[in-house]
## 1
Amino acid sequence: MLQPISILDVCSCINVALNSSKFSNKIIDLVGPNEISFEKLIKQSIPDNVKTKKITLEYAYKQALNDINFEYGVEDLNILVGNYTGNHKKLKNLTNLVFKKIKSLNT
């Protein structure tokens, strides 16, 4: 699962963090309010006339290790399989921002 966040929200969070002592000595996940699978994100992000090819994770890792031009690196794949999600409520409470929901992400 992923939690995409608007670039405008990221910029707003950075601005708040630079101007507030609430962020001192904290590690905060910059995550949006919606959770979505990588597969669903890809399906919703490309036009219907664009074809995709589903590949196995094993193949992706082999390509990442052996092909410098492969679309994903090993670290990218580790993030995708790690199912990392963050605490959006904590981010929202610290920043007091109203986050934009990315409209095409219907979970």
Note: Residues 1-35+85-102 form one domain.
## 2
Amino acid sequence: MNFQQIETKDLMMNPFQKISSEWMLISAKKEDKINTMTASWGMVGHLWGKDVVQVFIRPQRYTKEFVDNSDTFTISFFDGNYKKELGYLGSKSGRDEDKIANVNFHPVEINDAVTFEEASLAIVCKKAYIDEFKEENFLNEADIEKWYPTKDYHTCYIGEIVNVYANK
């Protein structure tokens, strides 16, 4: 592992490309266990005078238990060589198998949070705000029909960016 801390202002990435097309892992610890999930929805920005990320997790995802039970979580990005592994991590549950070992990823702790040796970039976040999507707040009924046919609305997490690490 060769993670080096960098400043958020020095991030050189297109969040639209990274999140929606290349995907990211949302990871957290709960007691002595870790779990992760692949996500293609999220945001990076500035709120309340802080650099923040915003991630969204459905209620049935096992990773939600880990994020809910931790003060911190990470979002980790990878180069294009790991798309197959990210697809696997997004389609399997850590409840049923050791999916991290099954893709041969190697967890590492940074700032009392978890990322992976294989990541090119890891952003450590401290939870700052949590809320549930509510049906009555949608302004476009088509979004509910398309994205929530079973009414399993996401929980929204805003995390203050604590540190950013690039894997050199």
Note: The beta strands are 3-6, 24-30, 33-39, 42-47, 50-57, 72-77, 107-110, 113-116, 121-132, 155-167.
## 3
Amino acid sequence: MLRNAGIITVVFTGIATEFGVESSARDVFNRGFYSVVVSDCVSSPDNT
């Protein structure tokens, strides 16, 4: 659907960065899209 719509970049925000956000961003990148994770718009329970 993204390719059919002409989308080439996917922007990610959300919580649980090391789980859902990271794996989704990696998957999109592996499928040939540009993957952007907005650092000010993600969160993690491990803030170290």
Note: The chain has a mean pLDDT of 90.
